[in-house]
Amino acid sequence: MSLADASFPSSAAFDAIASAISSDADRKDAIKKGGAIFAFTLKNPAGEQKEWYIDLKKSGTLGKGSAPEGEKADVTMVLSDADFTKLVAGKANAQNLFMTGKLKVKGNVMKATKLDPILKKAQNKAKL
C-alpha cells in the first residue's frame, strides 16, 4: 500500500523510507538508531494538512495518521510539503529549518535528531 498522496507530492518519500528499511536487518538497525515514533504533519499550498508516522520504536513500520493504533508519537514535526521534499532530498538541513521557523517540533526534540540517518538512507531511493 502506497503512502503517497497526490495533493502532497513529498509524501512519496514515505514509500522511499519504507523501502529503505524493508529488510529485517535494515528495520532492526533503524529501530536501534531511532528508538521513537516520529510523526509528520505536512501542509500543502492549498492549506490542507495530513499526518504520517514512522514507528522506529517497535515495528519499523510507516503509515498514515499521527501514530500506530494505541500508540503516541514521541516527536511530531510540522512543516510544509515543499520543505519536507527538501529535507528528504538532502537539500535542506533540519536544524536550519527549525531555526528559521519552517520546522516546528512538538515532543522530544532530542529524538528528532535520531531521524537523520534514516532520512539519509532513504535519499538514495527517493525520487523527488
UniProtKB/TrEMBL annotation:
It comes from the Eukaryota. InterPro entries: SCP2_sterol-bd_dom, SCP2_sterol-bd_dom_sf. GO terms for cellular component: cytosol. Residues 20-120 form the SCP2 domain. This is SCP2 domain-containing protein. It comes from Cryoendolithus antarcticus. The lineage of its organism: Eukaryota, Fungi, Dikarya, Ascomycota, Pezizomycotina.
